[in-house]
Amino acid sequence: MSVGPVIAHTVLSAPRETAWQSLVDPQNTEIWWPDLTLEASIGGGISEIWEEEDTVRHATGTVDIMIAGHSLGFTWQDVQDKYPTSVLIVLRSEGDKTRITVTETGLDMLEDAAHRALEYQEVWGYHLEDLRAFVAGELVGDEEQGEGQEDLNGADVQADADGEDRDEVDADTEEGDSSAAKGV
After folding, report:
1. Domains present along the chain, CATH in parentheses
2. How confident is the model at residue 142, as a pLDDT?
3. What letter would DSSP give residue 160?
């Protein structure tokens, strides 16, 4: 069965440089994506180890696209898969906010492609929501953080006064019922 790419996106209440540092700085990623190890440079490694239903899973790969502040791309492979998938993360300024779009391709080569695509879609949404919460100051290591946490550029990242969602996380797919996201 042919499945389209997994596409997920969110809008962060932060300028692109802050969003970029949140995405690639290891001190930041260890807070919002603690299972990830990323060396954000061409040829750099990427690795994620996570537990799923009492099983330890592991994906590794290599960064092959890196345009600082704009895009990060890598090819990686779960150790249980025969084929890798490719991920492209693009940041785009929208006024004083940043839209991040994640596209993962190559899923149709995987066993149980439609199910895996749905899984990957869900997990990318999860990771983008954690990134959004981190940038908004809602996710700070083991500590709770209130409104007005200083971000990486020293600017205030504010939550809405009513505590409602400041940004949105959307997940789109080419074939709505056949896409997803990895323990990615």
Report:
1. 6-178 (3.30.530.20)
2. 61
3. P
What does the pLDDT average to over 103-116? 95
CB 50 within 8 A of CB 123: no
Give buried/exposed letters for 97-111 (b at 16+ CB in 10 A, else e): bbbbbbbbbbbbebe
Indicate if the pLDDT at residue 75 is higher than 90.
yes
Question: Which residues are within 8 A (CB) of 34 and not within 5 positions of it... i.e. 6 or more apart?
Answer: none
**Which residues are CB-neighbours of 23 under 8 A, at least 6 positions away?**
29, 40, 72, 89, 91, 100, 131
Element (H, E) at 71: strand 71-78
Closest CA to 179 of 134, 85, 113: 113
Q: Which tens digit of pLDDT belongs to each residue from 57-73?
A: 899 999 999 999 999 99
Query: 120, 182 in Cβ contact below 8 A?
Result: yes
What confidence tens digit (pLDDT) does each residue in 145-164 have?
444 334 443 333 322 223 33
Give me the helices (H) in the chain, please: 16-24, 26-32, 113-135
How far apart are the C-alpha atoms of 107 and 175, rounded to whole Å? 12
